[in-house]
Amino acid sequence: MTENNQIGKSVIFPKKQSVEGVLKNKQKYKVFYSEDFPMTSFLDKNDVDFRVDPNAQNVAWTDYLPFLIFGGFIIFILIFLMQQAQGGGSKVMQFGKSKAKRHGKEQPKVTFKDVAGIDEAVEELQELKEFLASPGKFQAMGAKIPKGVLLYGPPGSGKTLLARAVAGEAGVPFFSISGSDFVEMFVGVGASRVRDLFEQAKLHSPSIIFMDEIDAVGRHRGAGLGGGHDEREQTLNQLLVEMDGFDVKDNVILIAATNRPDILDPALLRPGRFDRQIVIDRPDLRGREKILKVHTKNKPLKKAIDLKVLARRTPGFTGADLANMVNEAALLSARHGKKKIGMEQLEESIDRVMAGPQRKTRVISDKEKEVIAYHEAGHAMVAHFLPNMDPVHKISIIPRGKALGYTLTLPTEDKYLIAKTELLDELAMFLGGRVAEEMIFGDSTTGAQNDLERATEVARKMVCEYGMSEKLGPMTLGHKQEQVFLGKEIGNNADYSPEIAYQIDKEVRRIIDEAWEKAHKILSTKKNVLKLIASTLIEHETIERADLKEILAGKKLKPAAAKKVDKREVLKKKQRVKTKKSHTPSKLRPAES
Description:
Layout: E1 7-13, E2 18-23, E3 28-32, H1 39-45, E4 50-52, H2 59-86, E5 101-103, H3 119-133, H4 135-139, E6 148-152, H5 159-170, E7 174-178, H6 189-203, E8 207-212, H7 230-244, E9 252-258, H8 266-269, E10 276-279, H9 285-295, H10 307-312, H11 319-335, H12 343-355, H13 366-385, E11 392-396, E12 406-409, H14 420-441, H15 449-464, H16 498-525, H17 527-540, E13 542-544, H18 545-552, H19 560-582
Helix pairs in contact: 3-5, 6-7, 9-11, 11-12, 13-14, 13-17, 14-15, 14-16, 15-16
C-alpha cells in the first residue's frame, strides 16, 4: 500500500505496537508490527503523512505507576499501624518499651479504709507496706521479702481495688499493666516489654508492679490443639527469668491478679516467684454489711434502712455487685424524684442485679399469666413445706430479664457445705413448677426448661462428683471436662465401663423421680393452698414473705386496688394536716398515687 501511495493520514501507537489510519479510498486500517521494526523511519521513507501518539512519551513511568501506587499504599499502612500501636509518630520504633502506667502522688488515692469485707487479704498485704518501708527489720532476722503476691478469686471480688489500696498506702512508685499489654502483632515485643518493665521498676526501687489479668500471658505452656503460641510463651519465659533475677536488695514486689489460677503455668506459681497466693472470696454476711457501709457513705439514705437486713438479702454478692446495687438504687431514687434512697429502691435494685430489670412492655395473655402463677406457686409451696429448704422470701410473676417469673429463697446464714438432704429437697423445689402445671392444667410448658436443666445437673453431680449414690457408693466417676486451651484432655474422659454408665443414668433417673414424687405429694395434699397462692399472684403479681405467711395462715390479702386507695387516703390525711398548719393550700403538691 505504501508503494502504491494508498495510505492517508496515520497514527503510530508505540505502546500497542500498531499503526492505525485511513486509506485514500476512506477505508480504515490497523496494522501491528514487531518490536524491532523501525516503523517511524519506514513511514517517513515512503512519504506517509503520520504522527506518533502523544502519550508515547509517558510510556516509561506510566507502566510503573500501578506498582508505585501499591507500594506507597503498603508503606503508608505500615507507618499508620506503627503509630497507632505506640500512640504517635514519635514512638514509631519503641515497640519494645513497656506500656505500664506509673501512678504518682497527684492521683486520687485509694487506701485500705476503702476496702471492706476481705480483712484477711488486707492484713496480708499490709505486710508488703512494712517490707518496703523498713526492709532492714526483716533482713536482720534472715527473712526474705516476698517476690510476688498472687490475688485470685471470682470477678468483682476486689482484687484490683486491693492492689490500688496497696499503692495508696505504700507511698512508693506503682506500675500497673494488664497481661494483654504484652501481646503485640510483632514477634519478640512481649519479652522486650517485660524486660523494660522490670528495668523501670528496679530503677525506681523500692516499687510495686501490678499485673492485672495475668492469665493472658501466664497461661499453661503447650496449650491448644496445634501446640503453644510461641510469642506468648516467649513472653512468659522472660517473665519467669525476670522474677528469678530479682535481687533481695532490689525491693521490687510483683502483685498479680487473676480469675483463673487453675490455668496458670505451674512454673509461675512455685515458691520463689509467687511466694504468697491470697484468695479473695465472696464476702460473708459481716463482710457484705461492711461493704455496704463503704458504698453508702456519701449517699442520702433514709433512717429506717438497716444495712444488716440488706446484707442478709444479698448472699453470694461480690463487692462489685453490692456497689452496682447501691448505684442502681440511687439512680432509681433520682428517676422518681426522691430526695433520699429508701428501702423500696434498694429492694428493687437487688432484684435488678439478680434477675434483671422489669420488662413492663411485655404483654402476657391471661392464660399464660395463670400458668406462670401456678408454676411459681408450685416452686414456693414445695420450698416452704420442705424442712431443709431456705425460707421463701419473694414470689413474682413480673417478667425480668429472660425469666417470666421467679421464686426467691434466701438462707438465714452463710453456708459453705450442702448436705445430701438439702440437695434432695432442692431437687423437689426445682420440679415443683412443672408438677403444678401438670396437676392443674393436665399439660406442661417450656417454662420449666431451666428448672429441668438445673435438676438434672444437680442429680448427676450427686452421683458422679459428690459420691451420694447408694448403689455406686462414695466414689468420683469420670474426669471433669478439660478445656482445649489448657493443653490437657479434650472432651470427657470416661474412666468407667458401659455398665457403670448405665447405672449412673439409672441413679440419676431414680433421684429425679423421687424428687418428683415428693413435690407431687406436697402439692396434691395442699391443692387449695396452691390455688390461693396462684390467685393472689394473678391479682398482686408479687408476694413478699410477710404476705405469704398470711396466706398460709388462711388469711386473705387486701385487693391491690384497695391497697392503693389506702395509700391515697393516708396521703390525703397528711395533706389536710399540712394545710391546717400552713394555711397556704395553693402551694401544696397533689397527692402521689
